[in-house]
UniProtKB/TrEMBL annotation:
It is found in: Cell membrane. Belongs to the ExbD/TolR family. This is Biopolymer transport protein ExbD/TolR. GO terms for molecular function: transmembrane transporter activity. GO terms for cellular component: plasma membrane. Keywords: Cell membrane, Membrane, Protein transport, Transmembrane, Transmembrane helix, Transport.
Amino acid sequence: MSTDLDDIIEEEEDDFVLPRKNRDDDEMDITPMIDITFLLLIFFVVCSTMDPTKIGTIPEAENGLAIAAKNSAVIFINPGSGDTVILNKMDGSEFSRDEDAQASEIIEYITSELERSLGASKQQVMLFGDANVKVGQVTRIQKIIGDAFEDIDSTYIAVKEN
């Protein structure tokens, strides 16, 4: 009788055994690694700052292009105190030190300079910057020019080396 009982117990145990999934030893689950990669990517994107005023210095020019100043509106950009700049016209006169006033003066100056060179085939602006001028300041002046004058073909930037 004990054999019959043992057979019944073995049959019941066989019913409750879950089938084992055969896995190849070569397979590896890379889902956790992908999760960590995306978490790191999100962390660095959130922690980084995208401030164009914190960009480094203007790189040195390797090659140049000859541009005639007589057909261009020329603005000289010199470093001021702190992060400010001093803007000068071609005749040496200075623009206002206030950034809001500078914007309107730049627009007036370029308008008058381009009206004098109506016979020229190109309309262009030349910005002569000192090597110590911050890139953000040059970008600010370019934005003023670009927003006010959609018909200007090119804005050229020259960097004076020390």
